[in-house]
Amino acid sequence: MPGGCYLRPTVFDRVTPAMRIAREEIFGPVLAVLEFDDLDEAVRLANDTGYGLAAAVWTADLAAAHRVSRALRAGTVWVNCYEEGDMSVPFGGMKRSGHGRDKSLHALDKYTDLKTTWIRL
């Protein structure tokens, strides 16, 4: 579209864990590729950041998908897909990627202060 500021989809390979692109959230069509030798290292690399909005796992091994998705410190984990969801499912991050959840009934907690009062008469 004319008049906009756009970034073409970009892939960075040979990214190391110390690089800024591996440590910060990038909101754009950017993929940073880090190599790993096994699933434990992949999870360690993915969790070694102050952010945790979302993650994606691509695998044909359902057991590995469950193990990795449980271990990832991200508010949403997609397996073999990306940006799936609807308004009935909470969305939000972990660590420095936001507070609380958007969408679903869980989002109402942000706008509600619950209080209990007990009175003995």
Automatic annotation (TrEMBL):
Gene3D superfamilies per record: Aldehyde Dehydrogenase, Chain A, domain 1, Aldehyde Dehydrogenase, Chain A, domain 2
Domain annotation Aldehyde dehydrogenase: ranges: 4-116
InterPro entries per the UniProt record, alphabetical: Ald_DH/histidinol_DH, Ald_DH_C, Ald_DH_N, Aldehyde_DH_dom
Pfam families recorded: Aldedh (PF00171)
Keywords noted in UniProt: Oxidoreductase
Taxonomic classification: Bacteria, Bacillati, Actinomycetota, Actinomycetes, Streptosporangiales
Keyword Oxidoreductase belongs to the record: yes
Source superkingdom: Bacteria
GO terms for MF: oxidoreductase activity, acting on the aldehyde or oxo group of donors, NAD or NADP as acceptor
Protein name: Acyl-CoA reductase-like NAD-dependent aldehyde dehydrogenase
